[in-house]
Design brief:
This protein is α+β, with helices and mostly antiparallel strands and 328 residues long. It has ten helices and 18 strands. It binds zinc ion (ZN).
């Protein structure tokens, strides 16, 4: 019965037909395991919660997109067959891939920090922009958020900042990278490929400028959460080092955006990396640290729930998704 209800609600919600078979298959798989909580995730956004030291993390799925031709996004400096062979070897389709979006909340007990904001209202027609509903499902209201921290200012990270022309998180202050903000708000972006991003930042971030703390390398968002510059994807892209009671996690933002293609081959060029050589160098630096320090990471576009570990594998890294490490 729940299955039928989900399907009707789903169709009524007007979610794209392309995504429908996949989501219904997932629903069927969840029904087979008897997991009713997860079944609701097809109409209510998925989220996952875990503790790290005394911090409570809530990772929310803002949505997902199906993207054609993975080799035109990842490994653009490689023959298409090379990229497709690696996908096939990893039991993945070669003609399309799923891109997923994972903003998350760190509840420190005194602050409720949201890292990145998904697509917001402009994504809803396509089934993304589910952060607000996900927060609610996880027991948070938008007004509970005290700080919004941004890894970088691409549309899938800043779209949720404004809602109906007003700040979506009315009680929050903001933390963003100075280099990043200065780059995107610069009028010099007009008439360049970055013009769309420039306009999005003017619409969604600039109105909040008075409440933004601009930070750089080594600066703290709060005690226990520090920014590290990780440029290449964008000029001021940042990652966050988060520590509580001796436990540590790195939020890698968009440092690596495919758990196989980018992690196993960090030097493969990625369409969305603005400085491809710098992005590759940053990928190696960040994931060398994650692998050698054996710390978990949240990667915004990693397979949901987007939390895992990385170990050195051949000339790159192997992604090891989290299972019960945080439950014991
Ligand atoms: Zn992104």
């Amino acid at each position: 019965m729940a299955m039928g209800m989900n399907r009707r609600t789903f169709v009524a919600a007007g979610v794209g037909l392309l995504a429908a078979p996949m989501i219904l298959r997932e629903t069927a798989a969840m029904a087979a395991t008897g997991d009713n909580t997860k079944m609701d995730a097809t109409t209510q956004p998925e989220f996952t919660q875990f503790k790290l030291g005394s911090y409570k993390f809530t990772v929310i799925r803002d949505g997902k997109s199906v993207v054609e031709k993975p080799n035109e996004t990842f490994g653009t400096n490689q023959p298409a067959e090379t990229v497709q062979a690696l996908l096939a070897q990893n039991f993945l389709p070669t003609d399309k891939f799923v891109n997923s979006y994972a903003p998350f909340v760190i509840d420190t007990g005194s602050e409720v920090i949201l890292v990145d904001t998904g697509f917001g209202e402009n994504g809803r027609a396509k089934g993304t922009g589910q952060l607000a509903a996900g927060l609610k499902a996880a027991g948070y209201s938008a007004d509970d958020i005290t700080i919004v921290a941004l890894t970088h200012l691409h549309g899938d990270h800043i779209g949720g900042l404004m809602e109906g022309g007003k700040p979506a998180f009315a009680k929050a202050r903001y933390v963003a990278g100075k280099t990043e903000y200065d780059f995107w708000t610069d009028k010099a972006r007009e008439g360049t490929p970055a013009e769309g991003g420039h306009k999005a930042v003017l619409a969604n971030v600039a109105p909040l400028a008075e409440k933004i703390t601009f930070i750089g390398e080594g600066d703290a968002v709060v005690s226990g959460m520090t920014a590290m510059l990780a440029p290449g994807h964008t000029p001021g892209h940042m990652i966050f080092n988060i520590e509580s009671d001796g436990k540590r996690l790195i939020a890698t933002g968009d440092t690596a955006n495919h758990y196989i293609l980018s992690l196993q081959n960090p030097t493969w060029e990625v369409r969305f990396d603005m400085d491809k050589a710098q992005a590759a160098a940053t990928r190696k630096k960040v994931f060398d640290m994650i692998a050698s320090d054996k710390v978990p990471f949240i990667g915004y576009h990693m397979p949901f729930p987007a939390v895992g570990f990385a170990e050195v594998y051949e000339s790159g890294y192997r992604f090891v998704p989290k299972t019960y490490q945080f439950d014991l």
